[in-house]
UniProtKB/TrEMBL annotation:
<dbReference type="InterPro" id="IPR000731">
    <property type="entry name" value="SSD"/>
</dbReference>
<keyword id="KW-1003">Cell membrane</keyword>
<protein>
    <submittedName>
        <fullName>MMPL family transporter</fullName>
    </submittedName>
</protein>
<feature type="domain" description="SSD">
    <location>
        <begin position="182"/>
        <end position="329"/>
    </location>
</feature>
<feature type="transmembrane region" description="Helical">
    <location>
        <begin position="597"/>
        <end position="616"/>
    </location>
</feature>
<feature type="transmembrane region" description="Helical">
    <location>
        <begin position="230"/>
        <end position="251"/>
    </location>
</feature>
<keyword id="KW-0812">Transmembrane</keyword>
<dbReference type="InterPro" id="IPR050545">
    <property type="entry name" value="Mycobact_MmpL"/>
</dbReference>
<feature type="transmembrane region" description="Helical">
    <location>
        <begin position="307"/>
        <end position="331"/>
    </location>
</feature>
<feature type="transmembrane region" description="Helical">
    <location>
        <begin position="671"/>
        <end position="695"/>
    </location>
</feature>
<feature type="transmembrane region" description="Helical">
    <location>
        <begin position="362"/>
        <end position="387"/>
    </location>
</feature>
<feature type="transmembrane region" description="Helical">
    <location>
        <begin position="707"/>
        <end position="727"/>
    </location>
</feature>
<dbReference type="InterPro" id="IPR004869">
    <property type="entry name" value="MMPL_dom"/>
</dbReference>
<keyword id="KW-1133">Transmembrane helix</keyword>
<keyword id="KW-0472">Membrane</keyword>
<feature type="transmembrane region" description="Helical">
    <location>
        <begin position="278"/>
        <end position="301"/>
    </location>
</feature>
<feature type="transmembrane region" description="Helical">
    <location>
        <begin position="628"/>
        <end position="650"/>
    </location>
</feature>
Length: 771
């Protein structure tokens, strides 16, 4: 591998013009493809094997219009207009009618038409819209049509907010000046690391070039398959940070080779053979760790991991091709513009002194460092997987504003109702009685209708498209099952309202409104109780009847449960692959096991900080979040894979230098000291870059991105300081030769001390007496 990389580096120096041309063509081509053919980032449309998916599949034959993704449209009063004014209400009605006529709309509620659901009060009107197809079928053009449809209400002076799928489209991931701040801070670290303006700019330039290609490819992939909105943000965080780090290691070695007298081509070749080899191994470890996310069994999680892996892979490719070409073009001028009075090479002596200090006090440092990491990990014991919902979005987002309006006017659980779907066995003889128009105490039909909404007027026109046919004959058993379900569910604590059943053929649907917000633990507990106790009790009395609980909120709870069940598989796979790679790389048993345990401590500490901040609410307001929120279900899964991979990067760079010195001297203590002195500056610089890059994504409004960014930044900070500079050297000092034990291998023999030059004995000069 080293020889191949050396030849590649030399070739890129000699053919640098060709390399530049290829990269420019690739960047321009990928950029144009992403801009012109890129798709929308969307949530996953299916959750195979979950109860929510079974509810959708059961609903589709008799209620096809209600089986698609949903959007929530909220018409809210302003200082100049209110839906309670009949003249303004006419404009709202025209807007709802416009929504119903859209080609992509399968069904739209209408609180002004009896049996069409929806909510209205003096200050707000809320309608839910069911779209055709899946979330992957939604395009940017649909968003424009939604905005055009509600224009009459806006012209009347009302404020219109979108929630659900439409809000997600409105909030496509966008970069901002905060990411630029992260890159500027990374540039400052590089200046201090290199002491040269020109050398510091090279890693930034190379990583940005690679990121253009990676982001464009991810954007284009969104037109071919469903890509989660979090994917480009996670890929950007990891890709930019890893790209700068990899270039940092190679440029550092290149400058060292120049200082030793190599010519430019030879210096690039040697840098690629040594640091380039480490970059390939480190990048490969990250890619393998991230690809372990496919074992989660959830497609969108695997795709986010794939997007991040693609970004890291492209950064490795840029470091191995574009970077050598840039170095070849600059040649010895890389240190031309130096920072005054900055000599980073002098820091190695201070780090070696630190290494000797830790070596002399190994036991105290090992104990204290372990206790600190375990203390930071304590909050993890209370970690609770939560659900993504508009109720925990940033208050600046339209979806959160829509939720706040609905919660204030109608109750916190109204925004995300549950749907109970019952399917009874087919009957040979149907009743000839038409479906009764079942109404709750509020006068609304069984589709929706929490208490407090105004009664709907009688329909004066044919029912809009997608509405259940009131003349379709129901199955008697379906009616019976529906009534029993309603009766039992309405008596469950935590249920605010249970609508009357709506029956078509052998399928009955019931809408259930919880009394609590979608993201709180009580709502999750209610879903589990309905599924495990209340609904099975009714289904048991009707053999052959299948009853499922679905809806947006139960779907996300299904996701959290699936992630929790599959996470051990991901952990075992990622740790196992990393152990195997380290064993192959270092031919040691103890070092890989110790490295895995150290990484787990880093991960536990970062989980603890994220839990304390977001779930416990410690300082959460400083991050732009207005309330304590649970941890998004897939965030710990991602953090584990990413942190484990990144931690292995630093472990490889540190251990490679320590083993090189141990093989040369056979001294397990001095080799650690020399390894710390040679790599500590690089590791701390690389960690600071990662911290600044990750931290720059914390201001993003998406709470999921905030959690990942903070968790990754904390993990890198802990790993590069407490773990790599304290705990690892202390433990390696305590274990001594056992670190490098391998069956059948003998200890290296230290070289003999250099011979001391023999000093000739002074000769006695006989002086003749002076006469």
């Amino acid at each position: 591998m080293a020889r191949i990389l050396e030849r590649l580096g030399r070739l890129c120096v000699r053919r640098r013009r060709t390399v530049f041309e290829i990269w420019i063509v690739v960047m321009l081509g990928a950029g144009v493809l992403g801009l012109t053919q890129g798709g929308m980032f969307v949530q996953q449309s299916t959750l195979p094997g979950t109860e929510t998916q079974k509810a959708i599949d059961t609903l589709r034959p008799d209620f096809p219009a209600l089986a698609g993704p949903t959007a929530t449209v909220v018409f809210h009063s302003t200082a100049n207009a209110s839906p309670g004014d009949w003249r303004v209400a006419l404009s709202v009605g025209r807007s709802i009618d416009n929504l119903t006529k859209l080609d992509r709309v399968a069904f739209a509620e209408n609180p002004y038409v009896q049996g069409m659901g929806g909510l209205k009060s003096h200050d707000a009107v809320v309608v839910r819209v069911n779209l055709k197809g899946t979330m992957g079928d939604v395009s940017a053009g649909d968003l424009d049509k939604f905005n055009e449809a509600v224009e009459p209400a806006r012209m009347a002076g009302l404020d219109v907010k979108f929630g659900g799928i439409v809000a997600m489209i409105l909030n496509q991931p966008k970069g901002g000046p905060q990411e630029g701040v992260g890159i500027v801070l990374a540039l400052l670290v590089l200046l201090l690391a290199f002491g040269s303006y020109l050398a510091a700019g090279i890693p930034i330039l190379v990583s940005l070039g690679g990121m253009v290609v990676a982001y464009s490819m991810i954007h284009f992939a969104a037109s071919l398959t469903e890509v989660h909105p979090t994917a480009p943000m996670v890929a950007a965080m990891l890709g930019i940070g890893a790209g700068i780090d990899y270039a940092l290691f190679i440029v550092t070695r290149y400058r060292q080779q120049l200082a030793e007298g190599d010519d430019v081509e030879t210096a690039v070749g040697h840098a690629m053979a040594h640091s380039g080899h480490a970059v390939v191994f480190a990048g490969g470890t990250v890619v393998f760790a991230i690809c372990g996310l496919f074992l989660s069994g959830i497609a969108f999680i695997g795709r986010i991991g794939l997007a991040s892996a693609v970004a890291v892979g492209i950064m490795v490719l840029a470091a191995l091709t574009l970077l050598p070409a840039v170095l070849g073009a600059l040649g010895t001028r890389i240190d031309k513009y130096r920072l005054p009075r900055v000599r980073p090479e002098r820091s190695s002596k201070r780090w070696m002194a630190w290494g000797r200090h830790v070596d002399r006090h190994a036991w105290p440092y090992a104990i204290v460092a372990t206790l600190v990491l375990l203390g930071l990990a304590i909050p993890t014991l209370s970690l609770r997987f939560g659900v993504m919902s508009d109720s925990i979005s940033s208050p600046k987002m339209a979806s959160r504003q829509a939720y706040d309006i609905v919660a204030k006017e109608f109750g916190p659980g109204v925004y995300s109702p549950f749907v109970v779907v019952a399917k009874v066995p087919g009957a040979e003889k149907r009743t000839k009685t038409p479906v009764p128009v079942l109404k709750g105490p509020d006068g609304l039909s069984g589709l929706t209708g929490p208490a407090g909404a105004q009664p709907s007027a009688k329909p004066e026109a044919p029912l809009p498209k997608g509405a259940p046919d009131p003349n379709k004959k129901p199955d008697k058993q379906a009616v019976l099952v529906g009534e029993e379900l309603k009766q039992r569910i309405s008596e469950v604590p935590g249920v605010a309202y249970t609508a009357d059943p709506v029956i078509t053929g052998t399928t009955a649907t019931i809408q259930v409104i919880p009394s609590t917000a979608p993201h709180v633990e009580a709502t999750t507990d209610l879903v589990h109780r309905l599924r495990t106790v209340e609904i099975p009790a009714v289904a048991k009395t009707h053999p052959g009847t299948a009853v499922y609980l679905g809806g947006e909120n139960p779907a996300i709870i299904d996701l959290a449960d699936t992630v929790g069940a599959r996470m051990p598989n991901v952990v075992i796979a990622v740790v196992g692959v990393a152990l195997l790679l380290l064993i192959i790389a270092f031919r040691s048993i103890i070092v890989p096991i110790k490295a895995a345990l150290m990484n787990l401590l880093s991960i536990g500490a970062s989980f603890g900080v994220v839990t304390a901040v977001f779930q416990w609410g410690w300082g959460v307001h400083l991050l732009g979040v207005d309330q304590a929120i649970p941890i998004m279900s897939f965030v710990p899964l991602f953090m584990f894979a990413l942190i484990f991979g990144l931690s292995m990067d630093y472990e490889v760079f540190l251990l490679s230098r320590i083993k090189e010195e141990y093989d040369r001297t056979g001294d397990p203590h001095e080799s650690v000291v020399v390894g710390i002195g040679a790599t500590a500056r690089l590791i701390t610089s690389a960690a600071l870059i990662m911290i600044f890059v990750f931290g720059s994504f914390v201001p993003q409004p998406d709470p999921t991105v905030k959690m990942m960014a903070l968790g990754l930044a904390v993990a890198v900070a802990v790993d590069a300081t407490i773990v790599r500079l304290v705990l690892v050297p202390a433990l390696m000092s305590l274990l001594g030769h056992a670190n490098w034990w391998w069956p059948g291998r003998k200890r290296p023999v230290p070289p003999p001390p250099p011979p001391t030059p023999s000093t000739p004995e002074p000769q006695q000069l006989e002086l003749e007496p002076v006469r």
